[in-house]
Design brief:
With 159 residues, this protein is mainly alpha-helical. It contains seven helices and two strands, in the order E-E-H-H-H-H-H-H-H.
Length: 159
């Protein structure tokens, strides 16, 4: 079933369903809903900027970006961003995705707390960071159409 929130179509693929199930199981409600908002805000910012990301890769990057904060995926030997990125790479490799795609998502996640760099990289990398910045810091929030912001808030929190 195709789900649309604020005009953004959530890809209805096995990869997206599997990513959702894995992250939903590992993360608290707070982190899971934040991660979904990161995808939605990233996709909305991409539309605003005229970028055309691979929505599956953006979705995986957004959903996995904080997975290293969880007990199941976090380690004490490296940054949570790297733990999160490593989990996403392993997930994509297990699903038969190319090393190029896995590296793109790894980079998007690893750099999501490094402002000023991702915006110059591929759309998936730039938009994971943009989604985080919009959801956490409000950066670019006012640049989105008010009607779309309202629809995103009401639907994403209910998901």
């Amino acid at each position: 079933m195709l789900e649309t929130i604020a005009g953004i179509k959530i890809p209805d693929t096995a990869l997206v369903r599997d990513a959702t199930a894995l992250v939903r199981e590992a993360e608290s409600d707070l982190l899971f809903h934040h991660s979904r908002r990161v995808f939605l805000f990233g996709a909305l910012q991409g539309q605003r900027l005229g970028l055309e990301p691979d929505l599956e890769l953006l979705y995986v990057g957004a959903l996995f970006h904080d997975l290293g904060l969880t007990e199941s995926y976090g380690t004490t030997v490296q940054r949570f961003e790297v733990d999160s990125a490593n989990a996403a790479r392993a997930f994509l490799n297990a699903h038969g995705y190319s090393d190029t795609d896995a590296t793109t998502v790894w980079t998007a996640i690893a750099l999501h707390t490094t402002p000023g760099v991702p915006e110059f990289m591929s759309p998936e990398i730039a938009l994971v960071t943009a989604g985080v910045e919009t959801d956490v810091l409000g950066i670019g929030y006012r640049d989105l159409a008010p009607r779309r912001r309202a629809r995103r808030h009401s639907r994403a929190s209910a998901a």
